[in-house]
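Hello again, I could really use a second opinion on something today. I've been staring at a protein lately and its backbone has me curious. You're getting the sequence in one-letter code plus the fold written as tokens. I'd be grateful if you could look everything over and explain what you see. No rush at all, and the record is pasted right below:
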Amino acid sequence: MMKPKFCNKFILGILFLLSLNSYGQKALLEKDGIIYCAKVYGYNIGTNDFIIEWLSNFDEKFETYKNNEFELNAKRNEALQEINALSNELQFTDIYTQKMDAEFGQYDFNTKNFEFKPLQFADEKKQINTSSYFYVHTNIISADHNRAEVYALNFKDFDGIPMETNDANLFINNRTKQGYNSSYVNRKVYLKIYFSILPEKMQDNYGWGGLKDIGLYSYVYKIEVWGDECMSGNKIAVLNAKQQPPTYLLATGEEFNKNYDLGNTQEKLPLEQGWIKIVDQTLYNNNSSNCNKKNHFEIHLSMEKDYGDLYKIKFKFRTNACLIFSPGFFYTITDFKENKYPLLVTDVTDNIVNDYKIVSVRINKETLKSLGDGGLADIKFQFNPTSQYQGSSNYTKYFTNKKCTSSIYLYVNWSSLKKEAPEYWLDENANDDFKKMIKTILNQ
């Protein structure tokens, strides 16, 4: 595919595409950005030069027909229809989302804020994208060639990450990595920016040749600050605009705030009485850094008296991963004394309404007491048959209703012992809640 050269190539040359969600937010695509530039500055999008540049950027087969005037003419007419349709479709009240990364600074104990200027770079420009070159070959003389940047009009609204001192201390501790002779604080965060393009011109003369069209203004409604790149389970803060939007965006802003965050993340399982949350993190496929392929896991745990000295531990799973559950698989719990307790799955049940599966194991009273004393340090779940543990093939079911053509994981490990499983960790309250649960069930 040809390398694009257009008006809105966001974030240091990398454009992250986000899907349209239920209340109108979408990624500002390259074609959209070009059309917005044309709408703001009154560029003639029907010129031959503009259309040819459009085809050369967006049709990867352009080189195969550019010298055939008959085929080129047909393609040119198709492109003009697309350009006009986009121009009619795009509105200045549309809301867009954009991802980028940034770093936060030192904590200010007086203001209780981390130093943070996400929309300002070293040159103090308030841009949220980089320059592009689409208009170089379009013979639009008023354009300043490589100047077609998107700037945040209200960039100062998002300076600083507010956080109470105790929370900030814990936050920094969790982001501190110890080396041999020193430590390092990871200050990188990932942003999701919600904005609308404004119709006002942005021009400068740069000291020569009169005014040049240098870019687009935008109004930013909110910025989400995330600790993980895929923005799935570690939201640090939501920074809201302080400056009111232009009057023609007031209704748009109100509608956005009313519907904000709806459908944005997977709905959480309700934590029913008698259950505790074990993990609510994101499991990544180690073979892929593509966030669109991330797998979500949400696991709750409960315990009940079965009969005699036997107790039943239930794990409630919800995940979009391609996993197989079956009785006969071994799951292992490790305590903080490094004792391991292999547990045999006795039954698997479905709850289709709430889209989760419950996997049950039985445990005797003595083992339960030992776990209560040692705590919940580590859990390893086996998924899919292995040569050692085949499971009961006649009971094997896929977790999701979607067809799974392959499965990546033989087992997955979650741990409170960060050195054992740094990518996946138990909920911070899981161990205390687990010990309380055991004490409660033993006292029944």
